[in-house]
Amino acid sequence: MKNIGLTLAVLVLTVAPCFAQYKFTKVDFPGAPQTNLFAINNKRQYVGASIDASGTNHAIYFDGNTLSLLNPSGVVGTNFSFALSLNLRGDIVGGYLDASDHSHGFLYNEGNVTTIDFPGALGTFAFGINDLREIIGIYSDSAKVQHAFSLHNGVFKTTDLAGGIGTVPFSINDAGEVVGQYTTVANTIGHGYFEASNGEFLSYDASAAPPNSTFFISINNLGQIVGTWVDANNLNHNFLLSLGTFRNFNVPKSYGATQVSAQTINDPGDIIGWFADAQGIQHGFLAVRK
């Protein structure tokens, strides 16, 4: 793979003074002390995890009408689990830990669960899926080294970016474009990266960010990218890259958030994620474009 530099139009940036108007909704899973939301599709269906009193995650799914546990009596619902991405075909991917604390990816569709394990890996997580059922994620090899992977039509591929020491692919759109986290210096967050479908890629650092402290977490079919940079106090600063413009993103001040993690943007421009309040309790949020 070849680094194509900061020439892609999506990353030729100007700074916008304000962000588009959104209607925000706080989302808490019924009866759960804490809630995280991770992904939303164009139908405004979404997935995430409820967190119980013991700190155990349980994958959750909003089908457009009801927010419920995913696969409650199956392998996903009965283990530590989280749902991380969904498409318009009813597919949901994520990860779970088995009774021996080994990690596995999963693909869920209409009540059926397929476990995703990279061949020979010690552990696997699935992070993203598009409408072509291309799946991306990470796995740990026999030496406990982490790698990026893709899975399409039953074929696994290792997709580590050249020149780095770590690649984490978080999101894939229907054009096969991938964004994520690209690390070149040990023990740092690293850089956001955009990878084209032909394997060429570029890395990105937010202008106000300390070195090696930026990552991308979502890309939609319009090429809009959501990312985060982390300051010296370990606080997130979320942003949107859209049509050559950089915009900061945050939840309303009335939420009293001490930490915010924007997770996914869909094609209509809605953004989903989670925030921590003044007591450190995590809540999901849905920001719908007005």
Largest sheet: 5 strands, mixed
Number-wise, the strands total: 25
Based on Cα principal axes, name the global outline: globular
Spans of at least 5 consecutive residues whose pLDDT stays below 50 are 1-10
Q: Write the element-wise H/E pattern from the N-terminal end onward.
A: EEEEEEEEEEEEEEEEEEEEEEEEE
Write out the strand line-up for the largest beta sheet, numbering strands in chain order: 1-22-21-20-19
Strand content: over 45%
| Amino-to-carboxy terminus distance | 40 Å
Give the helix proportion (percent range).
under 10%
Give a structural overview:
0% of the residues lie in helices and 50% in strands. The chain is globular. The chain has a domain at 9-34 and 90-260. By secondary structure, the protein is an all-beta fold. It has no helices and 25 strands. It has strands at residues 14-15, 22-27, 34-40, 46-51, 57-62, 67-69, 81-86, 91-97, 103-109, 112-116, 123-129, 135-140, 146-152, 155-158, 166-172, 178-183, 191-195, 201-204, 214-219, 225-230, 236-242, 245-249, 259-265, 271-276, 282-289. A hairpin with a 5-residue loop joins strand 15 and strand 16. The strands form 6 sheets. It has a 5-stranded mixed sheet with strand order 1-22-21-20-19, with no helix packed on it. A 4-stranded antiparallel sheet has the order 2-25-24-23, with no helix packed on it.
